[in-house]
Specification:
The chain is an all-alpha fold and 287 residues long. The protein has twelve helices and two strands. 79% of the residues lie in helices and 2% in strands. Strand 1 and strand 2 form a beta hairpin.
């Protein structure tokens, strides 16, 4: 009887292990197929003319240089606003706030916001920033909309990084006569900087891959503009340009080329996040 039970358990364990390997294999195969197909269709269409020029129907040329610059513009606008807000809010909630119920409510609201579909952020951004505030569709309206989207990510990642700093570090700094802000600035933040930087890089990755929210706020413009002009002028990022070329212009080759570029950028951003995190941890452990 015991031998039969043991045999059944072994067969059951082997069956579950095989099922897990099958699921993992299917997931990896699907991922490899998607990445491989995008690179197969896209890399051959990437040319220097595509990367260094703008679309001109008079010259019969297609270029994505404006879209690359618009992507860099919107990353700069969004990050320069969201970093002080997110990091400052996380420091206050972790180090200064005394009402734990209010902190819990804010944390719950931040986690809820991270699960809202991006198209809703785009609709709210269009209604508030464009219709109510009177901003023109462009980098500024799109950047402010992205600030609302990635603020919960920066807030929560910074909070978790600050919580990993041992309480004894804080107590030791205060015992030596340091003030609250001096303790936070010289002890807490340096020990949490690796997680903060990693969260910021991942937030940049979300900005690069965002399209739904920018369709309503940044616009579809494919013209090359300077930074100040692009703030209040319709300016399509790489993801929006991918949608325009694939859905409205029928240029599937250009769309796959942009998709391949976005895949490479996403890979570089994720690798940078891991590299920066490890580098900062090594520097912190050597101190």
């Amino acid at each position: 009887m015991d031998q039969n039970l043991s045999l059944r358990r072994k067969l059951y364990d082997k069956g579950l292990r095989g099922l897990l390997w099958l699921c993992a294999g299917l997931t990896c195969a699907l991922l490899v197929f998607l990445i491989g197909y995008i690179f197969y269709r896209g890399l051959g269409n990437i040319t220097w003319e595509l990367l260094s020029s703008q679309t001109s129907y008079l010259k019969d040329t297609i270029g994505i240089l404006p879209n690359i610059l618009n992507t860099l513009y919107i990353i700069f606008v969004a990050m320069i606003i969201v970093l002080p807000l997110g990091v400052g809010a996380a420091i206050y909630l972790t180090e200064y706030a005394e009402n734990h119920k209010v902190v819990a409510v804010i944390e719950f609201a931040a986690e809820t916001l991270t699960g809202i579909p991006s198209i809703i952020f785009g609709l709210v951004g269009m209604l508030f920033f464009i219709q109510k505030m009177g901003l023109a569709p462009g980098i500024l309206a799109g950047g402010l909309t992205l600030v609302i989207m990635i603020l919960p990510t920066i807030l929560r990642t910074t909070q978790e990084s600050l919580k990993t700093v041992p309480q004894s570090y804080r107590e030791g700094a205060l015992a030596l006569g340091a003030g609250k802000w001096h303790m936070v600035r010289t002890v807490v933040l340096p020990n949490a900087i690796d997680g903060i930087v990693t969260g910021c890089i991942l937030a940049v990755g979300r900005i690069v891959g965002e399209s739904a929210a920018l369709l309503f706020t940044a616009g579809f413009g494919l013209v090359l503009n300077g930074f100040r002009t692009a703030l209040q002028t319709s300016s399509a990022t790489l993801t929006v340009a991918l949608y325009v070329y694939a859905n409205e212009r029928g240029e599937t080759g250009v769309a796959f080329a942009i998709a391949a570029i976005l895949m490479i950028l996403t890979l570089l951003i994720n690798l940078s996040a891991g590299w920066v995190g490890k580098k900062l941890k090594k520097q912190r452990s050597s101190l």
